[in-house]
Amino acid sequence: MTTPTLKIEQIHHVAYRCKDAKETVDWYVKNLNMDFILAIAEDEVPSTHEPDPYMHLFLDAGNGNVLAFFELPTKPEMGRDPNTPKWVQHIAFKVADRDTLVAFKERLEDNGVEVLGVTDHAIFHSIYFFDPNGHRIELACPDPEEEAMLARLDAVKWEMLEEWSRTKRAPRHADWLHAKERGKDVKPTGIHA
Questions:
Q1: 68: left (phi over 0), alpha (psi -120 to 50) or beta
Q2: Mean pLDDT calculated for residue range 154-160
């Protein structure tokens, strides 16, 4: 028997809680064109054997990536960590290019979804919005100069981490990243939170 290589291959799936299983599937299919690939429903949690009915949904997020949700009808209403800003916990999906990103923005807005951006992160460009469960979603496309910029960031990542660990203040090694965004006038709305 050979010793296995202990290395993660990829994320199998990422799971979040949802308020309503059907509404969640419908929203992701309609707005993000994801395919609904699997549903599992049980009255008992397989790993703990606790009696706790749930519906577990799986959506194809492209290239073997799977986004999953649990509806838990017997549990208290969903909440958030009150000490963490809404913008921190999110899931980001990659799209091919800026034209695709803008087309998704238009589709979402046409469907009544409030969208923030396009935000220029230099290495990539993003839009942000919330799903019907209050989860923040980001769609991002690479910048044409992404590879060169990633090489610059790779060269300073350890220095940045060390400085941050000592000071808890943003190091200036990559100040150029958001230079364009800092010059924009952004009006605060609910989506910024």
A1: beta
A2: 92
Q: CB atoms < 10 A from the CB of 124, how many?
A: 20
Domains and CATH numbers, the chain: 10-75 (3.10.180.10), 145-173 (no CATH)
Residue tagged 């599992």 (tokens):
40
Joined tokens for residue 18: 């949802």
Write the CA distances from 21 to 42, 66, 100, 137, integer angstroms: 14, 16, 27, 17
Question: Looking at residues 141-165, what average pLDDT do you find?
Answer: 91
Rounded to 10°, the helix 98-110/21-32 angle is 130
Tokens of 157: 């990542």
Q: What is the pTM of this model?
A: 0.85
Distance, in Å, from the CA atom of 12 to the CA atom of 161, rounded to the nearest integer, reads 28
pLDDT band at residue 192 under the 50/70/90 scheme: very low
Helix (H), strand (E) counts: the chain: 4, 8
